[in-house]
Here is the input.
Amino acid sequence: MLTTFYPPFNFGGDGIGVQRLSRALVRRGHQVTVVHDVDAFNILHRGRNPEARQKEDGVDVRPLRTGFKLASTLMTQQLGRPIINGRRIRAILNTGNFDVVQFNNISLIGGPGLLSYGGQAVKIYEAHEHWLVCPTHVLWRHNREPCPRRQCIRCSLHHHRPPQLWRHSGFLRRQLRQVDALIAKSHFSRDKHREFGLKNNMEVVPYFLPTSNDVLSEGMASSPHPRPYFLFVGRLERIKGLDDVIPVFSDYTDADLLVVGSGEYGDQLRNLADNNPRIEFLGRIDPEQLKRYYRHALALIVPSICFETFGIILIEAFQNGTPVIARRIGPFPEIVNKSSAGLLFEDPLELLKAMRAIQHDPALRADLIRNGKESFSTYWSEDAVLPAYFDVLRRAARSAGNYGVISALS
Here is the structure.
């Protein structure tokens, strides 16, 4: 596994997704090595650095650190190649004798130049973000709106990032020829890649969650909040759309809003809340404790205004028996319609209507909870997704003529 970010040196869902897949593969008897770039995380991270503590999960983790973290990160971003770490990455791959090399978010660990690494291994690229077609990763044009068409140089400058000239050559296209299979996390994301010019075929394999013990402990059985509440979980950034949710609770007095997460937009959101006693910012919460907040919430509100590739928090909600109210954008309609476990909205009035329906119609909420749990088991559990992932590997190996991998996966 080659990835820029990996817990605890990560910001969002991509690193967690890589970790979950790596652990699942180990549980199935595979040997997994993860190579990630601590320098890139430290350049972008603000605040106290996390401790490099790894659970005894059987994954071999190889963090990359140099004495030139700014130079290493900037050269990779600008030149699209692992200039400083290339030799070490190649050595890890050569000595590991890997059957499969999977490229995840490689933007700052090596860029497209990394795609030629791996020798005769089956090569998989998993698109956790829209980096293949967008220098800002998130198709958020000029730092103000979902991107309808390319204006990449101007947009990069609006995001305070130096333009990447290699994107205006055929370098990425040539490098992708060396990859045996590309994976998108949703049909929406696959179609968005195609819309923005990616010619390669993409398989769709969604995120998954490990099987969870559904027995509530004594502490889990009681609500963590004294009043009924709706829940927001995510990074506090403009693109997550919480600005549109907070004003709704100025007049909605039947329930509170609990906000879980942190980010550079947090101060602006707290100012927007203006000390509303029905809005509480909880910061980051341990994943095990977060389950308690999910299970007692009226619903999870997902108001993102950008084009996500999936939406892990939706299936976290389904697994924990929580309905979803999601904005009608990106992959959210795909997930909500497939599950029949939530409601969609486009504006504050629709959001308010959905909140009232879920809070005051017990039969509706019960149906959404049941549908969410059933659809999670059917579509997004580890046991449901891993066979589809292995099927992609087998077909990629067959296409590459690597029959040893096919035998190992049978």
Summary: The longest helix spans residues 362-380. The chain is about 40% helix and 15% strand. The domain at 2-210+382-409 is CATH 3.40.50.2000 (Rossmann fold).
